[in-house]
Structure formats: structure tokens, C-alpha cells
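Journal club prep — side note

Before the paper discussion, L.F. wants everyone to see what a predicted structure for a comparable chain looks like in C-alpha cell form. Sequence:
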Amino acid sequence: MSNKREVFVSVDVEAAGPIPGEFSLLSIGACSIYEPEKTFACELKPISRNFDPKALEVSGFSLDELALRGLAPSDAMQAFTGWLSTVTGRNATPVFVGLNAPFDWSFVNYYFHRFSGGNPFGFTALDIKALYMGAAGCNWGDTRSSKIAERLKPALAGTHDALRDALYQAEIFRLIRSEFMNKS
């Protein structure tokens, strides 16, 4: 058992399609769940021209614009690693938390390994949908963010802006822990 403190980090991404490698990670937003004023955000240069038109419509990104103004993926992942170090400090472990974490984590994991040599989050992620399902005793269909928000009444809302969505997810996570687990 580790004596390291766990720092829960809400992470959201916008991507050009459904899978990393073939489609590009376009933006990353993150915040410390219990210190949400500690944030990270960046936009990345695409690694390919592949895209799902619906993904770009939802995010509002243009691959051409990101090719000009986005960070190189290695620079983005180095900046994210640096930010994580400041949030966690020396004796803490960052815990990746996402709403539909398998999607977001797959892109972050791929980019960390391809462009930075390793993933500071390790090989695991905490999924808010699964946490909610277990805590609320609901069906999987009731874990959509709209259904969760209907019950928990967060002040924030999802917008498909990675940082704003990371902040929204952090609020949802805190509400789940507060309502169902009596922890903050």
C-alpha cells in the first residue's frame, strides 16, 4: 500500500475522431478536483489530417488553424507533465478522473507515451460515469451527463471546451462524493 497522497485531476479532451493515433488530440483541459482554481489548458497541432466531421463540428476546431497556433504535441505533453508536478508535489500521485474516462484517457495515454516517454497517471483512470452508477445504484443508461446533472444540479455545464468541461466534471465528482459517500 502506498503512503502517497492522491491528487484527483479532472481531465477532458477534444479530439478529431474516435481513436488516438489515427486521429489527433486537439485540446486538453485539466483542473485539480479539490482546488479547481489550479488549471491547465492547451491546444495541439494535429498529427494527421484525419477527422470526423462531427467531432470538429462539436469542438469548433479547425485543423488548419490548430496547425498554425497549436503547440507541438511534445511541447504540450511536457507542459502538462510540468503542471501535474506543480499540482501534485513530490509525495503525491495524480489520479486521472474523467466523464467517460476511457475516451479521454486513451488519447492522453497515447500522447504521453508517444511524445513524452511515459504517462504520469500510470495505466489507470477513474471514470465518473462508473463511480456514479455504483454510488447511485442506477442503470448504465442513467450515467449520461445530462441525467447526472438532472439529479445533482451542478452550477456548471458541459460545453465541449476542454477546460470548462474539466471544471464541470470536477464539480460532478465532488457532488457525487458529497451526496453518496459523505466525503469531500
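L.F.'s comment for the group: The chain has a mean pLDDT of 95. Keep this in mind when we get to the figures.
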